[in-house]
Amino acid sequence: MNLLELKNVTKHYLTGSEVVKALEDVTLEVKYGEFVVIMGPSGSGKSTLLSIIGGLNRPTSGTVVVDGIDIYSLSQEKLADFRREYIGFVFQSFYLIPYLTVLENVMLPLIVTDYTKEQKIAKAKEILERVGLSSKMKRFPDELSGGEQQRVAIARALVNEPLLILADEPTGNLDSLTGIEIMKLFKELNDSGKTIIVVTHNPENAKFADRCVYVKDGKLLGIEVLP
Amino acid sequence: MKLYSISIKNLLRHKLRTFLLLFVLVLAIFTFVVLITISRVVNENFAKQLDEYGANILVTPKSNSLSITYGGMMISSVEYEKNELREDDILKIRTIKNRENISVVSPKLIGIVKVNVGSNSLMKSAIICGVNFESEFKLKKWWKILGRKPSGKDEVVIGSEVARSFNLKIGDVVNIEAQVFKVSGILEETGSQDDLMIFADLRSVQDLLKKHGTITLAEVAALCYNCPVEEIVRQISDVLPNAKVTAIKQLVESRMEVMHRFGKFSFGISGIILLISALIIFTNILASVNERTKEIGILRTIGYKQNHIMRVILTEILVISFVSGLLGYLLGWGVSMIVSPILSGTTNVKVSFDWILFILSIFISLGIGIIAGIYPATKASKIDPIVALRAL
C-alpha cells in the first residue's frame, strides 16, 4: 500500500519573464512505513519536491495523493488542516520559536487542536521523553545545543502523530557526529512504524534509508533500493 | 497553551516594543481623557463665572414711549410712570420654576436729582441710581472702588465722571435734593454709563424721588449653563405680566460660543493625537509582522490556518489597546483631578469617575488598535510559508 503517490508532478516558477523548471514530470511512490532519502546537489529541486509532498507548494501540473487524499484539490485552509494532521516537518535550521520553552515549542501544533490542556501537556512530555529531552522542557531554544534543538524540532514534528515525517537537510547545521545521532533517531522512529522522507545531499545519511531517490535538474534520475 | 499564549509571550519577549506601543496609546487616551474632562470642568466653571459676571436678563416696564439706553439695551423712559415696576414684583422672580438658576436680582431706580457740594456752590443736575448695594456689587464684579463700599443709607458711591465734574474726593459731603450724603467711594472708570451716575441706597433714592416702592428696572443674572436663557425669560414674563423681560442675547450667545469653541478645540486636538498614535501603532505592528515572517511561516507550515495567524496578531494588539484604554483613562482621570481646580480657579471642583468616558476610552483604544492592526494582521495571515522559510 502506498502512503504517497506523485504522478507526473511538474513545477515551473516564473522569475521575471524567465520560466524556471524546478521539477519535471516526477512520478514517485512511497509505501507506509518506508524510509526514503532524496539525494541531489543543491538547486536540483529536491527541496521543492519535499514542499510539494508536504502540501506547501502547489505543483504546476500533476497530482499528489497522500493516504488516499488528492491534497491539491483541497482549499488553502483545508491544506493547513492536512499539514497539521498528516505531516510532521523538520528543517535544517530547526525553526524553533525563540520565546517559547522547549515544552511550548513541542506543543505548538497542538494549540489549534481540540485536545484538553492536560492532554496537550501529556502528549508533548511523552514525545520529549522519546527524543531524550525530558530534563530540558523548561529551557529556551538558545540554551540548547544544535543537536538538542533538532531533537526538539523532531519532537514538534511528531507530537501530532502524523503519518509522514518530512525532513529537509536535518543534519545540515550539525556536526557529523550529531548528524548521525539525528539520523539514528529517524531510523528508530521508522522502526516504530513512521514513514519518513529525508532530503539531503550527504551520502552518509542514505545508509539509514530503505530507498534512495536521486534528483538532478528537476528530474528523477533513479531509485536505488538499499540493502 | 492557547493561541493567545503566543501573543502574550511575544509581547513579553519584546518588552521595549510593547512598552513603546503601550506608551503611545496610553498617552493618546490620556490626552483625550484629560482634554475632554478638563474642558468640561473648566467650561462648567467658566460658564458659572460668566453667568455671575453681569446681568444677562433685563426686566423693564412695558411701554411704547421714548426710551433711553442702559448698558446698550433700550429701556423705557424713566419718566414714564404709567406702567412702572413695583419693588414687590421682582420678588416674584424668585418664585419661577427655574429659580435655582437665578443668581442675582438687582433692582434699580434711576432718576434726575439736583446736586451741590458745599453750601455756596451751584446746583447741578445728576443721574442717581438707587440700588441694593449687596446685589449690585455681586453683579458688577468688575467694579473697582477707590475708598470703600457704602455702609449706611447716607453714603454713596459715585462714578468717575461725577467725581470729576463736581470735583469730589473720597470722604467729601454732597447735598442731593437738600439731603446730606457722604462719598464713601469712587468708581474707577468703567467706560459705561456707570461713570455718570451716583449710586445710593435704593430706599434713600425712593425717598428722594418720592417713588416709594417703585423701581425703573431690574437686572437679573441667571446661570444658564444647563438651561436656555429664553426659558428663564419666559418664566419671568409669566410672573411679571406688566414687565418687558429681555435676554441680553448677544452676550449669552457669545458666552456659549466661547465654551463650544473650547470644546471643539479639545476634540480636534484629541482627534489628531489619536490619529498619530494609530499611525505609530500601524507602522510598529507592520514592522513586527515583517520581522516575524519566518516565525509565521513555521506556524503556517505546521498547520496553522490564516485565521489562527490573524488571531495571534490581533490578540497582541487588542491586549495592548485594552490595557492602554484602561491606564489612559485612570491616568487622565487622576491628572484631571489635580489640574482642574488649578485651571478653573476654584477648589470646589469635583472630577468624578465617569463610566461613560471610561468605557468610551477603552472602546476608542480598541478601535484604534483594530484600525491600525487589521492590515498588518491580514498581511501576516497571507504570508506564504514557502517564501517565508526559503529552506524548502
UniProtKB/TrEMBL annotation, chain A:
One of its GO terms (cellular component) is membrane protein complex. Keywords: ATP-binding, Nucleotide-binding, Transport. Residues 4-225 form the ABC transporter domain. InterPro entries: AAA+_ATPase, ABC_transporter-like_ATP-bd, ABC_transporter-like_CS, ABC_transpr_LolD-like, MacB-like_ATP-bd, P-loop_NTPase. SMART domains: AAA. SUPFAM superfamilies: P-loop containing nucleoside triphosphate hydrolases (SSF52540). Coiled coil: none annotated. GO terms for molecular function: ATP binding; ATP hydrolysis activity; transmembrane transporter activity. CDD domains: ABC_MJ0796_LolCDE_FtsE. The keyword Nucleotide-binding applies. Belongs to the ABC transporter superfamily. Macrolide exporter (TC 3.A.1.122) family. This is Putative ABC transport system ATP-binding protein. The lineage of its organism: Bacteria, Pseudomonadati, Candidatus Kryptoniota, Candidatus Kryptonium.
From TrEMBL, chain B:
Keywords: Cell membrane, Membrane, Transmembrane, Transmembrane helix. It is found in: Cell membrane. Residues 269-385 form the ABC3 transporter permease C-terminal domain. Residues 18-211 form the MacB-like periplasmic core domain. Pfam families: FtsX, MacB_PCD. The chain crosses the membrane at residues 20-42, 265-287, 308-335, 355-375. It comes from the Bacteria. This is Putative ABC transport system permease protein. It comes from Candidatus Kryptonium thompsonii.
